[in-house]
């Protein structure tokens, strides 16, 4: 009888966590992902694309660290991590398309600065120091890859915001252990997925 093909470690880690969830198992699996990130996370200013990759991975690592700290807390905290990772998945794909895309991503910081400055000027016109706004680019709105990701995004958004969905039924939403576990498994899935989008790893070595 033919033996089933052995799964690559990231896939196996997600599958195993989904089948046999525990806080210890989650912490271990996330630590493995963060260890690999630390190995590939070297400052590299050779191109806009490399700069963008480092910045995205640093933020992925921050989100994974939060997930470990929050694993026993309310489900909305894990939803916050997951929604951030969903958006980071979009940006990882975006900057991987070439240096021009990565440059655009980096220059969106100027667009954000301009938005904040204009709101500050409107709220406090007398106290706001004049500011030479740098050139801005048109903002790219992150999109979801498919209907499943759109669903995850929507659920996470409902958990994060103080909507009647969570205010009326906290026991079945933010205090629900099953939701927290599902979000946690997806956090591991997205962590590995973003990492390998930038750094394909040969797990047979």
How far apart are the termini? 26 Å
| Pattern of helices and strands | HHHHHHHH
Strand proportion, as a percent range, falls in under 5%
Q: Major β-sheet, in short?
A: none
Count of DSSP helices? 8
Q: Please estimate the helix content.
A: 55-70%
Structural class: mainly alpha
**Gyration radius from CA atoms, angstroms:** 20 Å
Describe the structure.
- It is a single chain.
- The protein is mainly α and 205 residues long.
- It has a domain at 9-98 and 146-198.
- It has helices at 9-19, 23-40, 48-70, 75-95, 99-123, 147-160, 164-168, 177-198.
Give the structure's gist in a few sentences.
The chain has 205 residues and is mainly α.
Task: Supply the key terms.
205 residues, mainly alpha
Topology diagram in text:
Blueprint: H1 9-19, H2 23-40, H3 48-70, H4 75-95, H5 99-123, H6 147-160, H7 164-168, H8 177-198
Helix pairs in contact: 1-2, 1-8, 2-3, 2-8, 3-4, 3-5, 3-8, 4-6, 4-8
């Amino acid at each position: 009888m033919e033996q089933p093909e052995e799964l690559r470690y990231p896939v196996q880690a997600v599958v195993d966590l989904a089948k046999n969830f525990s806080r210890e198992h989650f912490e271990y699996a996330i630590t493995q992902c963060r260890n690999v990130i630390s190995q590939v996370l070297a400052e590299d200013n050779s191109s806009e694309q490399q700069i963008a990759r480092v910045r995205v991975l640093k933020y992925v690592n921050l989100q994974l660290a939060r997930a470990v700290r929050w694993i026993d807390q309310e489900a909305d905290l894990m939803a916050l991590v997951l929604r951030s990772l969903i958006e980071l998945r979009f940006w990882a794909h975006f900057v991987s398309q070439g240096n021009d895309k990565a440059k655009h991503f980096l220059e969106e910081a100027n667009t954000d600065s301009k938005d904040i400055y204009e709101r500050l000027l409107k709220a406090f016109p007398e106290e706001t120091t004049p500011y030479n706004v740098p050139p801005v680019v048109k903002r790219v709105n992150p999109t979801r890859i498919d209907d499943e990701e759109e669903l995850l995004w929507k659920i996470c958004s409902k958990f994060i915001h103080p909507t009647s969905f969570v205010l009326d039924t906290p026991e079945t939403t933010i205090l629900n252990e099953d939701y927290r576990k599902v979000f946690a498994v997806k956090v591991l899935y997205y962590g590995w997925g973003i990492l390998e989008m930038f750094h394909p790893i040969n797990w047979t070595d």
